[in-house]
Amino acid sequence: MSKPELEAELEAAMGSEENPVEGEIQITNENALIVMAQAMVGIEKHLFALVYLEKTRDPEKTQVTFLSDVFNAIYDGSDPFRDVDEQVKAAADAAKAGKADAG
Question: Are 99 and 91 in contact (CB under 8 A)?
Fold first, then answer.
């Protein structure tokens, strides 16, 4: 490749500021901190996922079993144990109601 071809390829790869990619956020002085924080959160999620995968590699040793819902919750922020918490709360409420009726 000749030097002009390399420069043209570099410019195409880097993109031009006049024509940003659709959906791309330009980093400015005003939003740089937000962009860095979002990047750090993404890194944290990936590291947490790696730790989870490492701990579930040998469940006999670690007593941690891989659950796909838990792994997915790392990235999407959902609560895979919400239904369990709701059932425990309902059982506790039923037990309180039973004591009130008996007393």
Answer: no
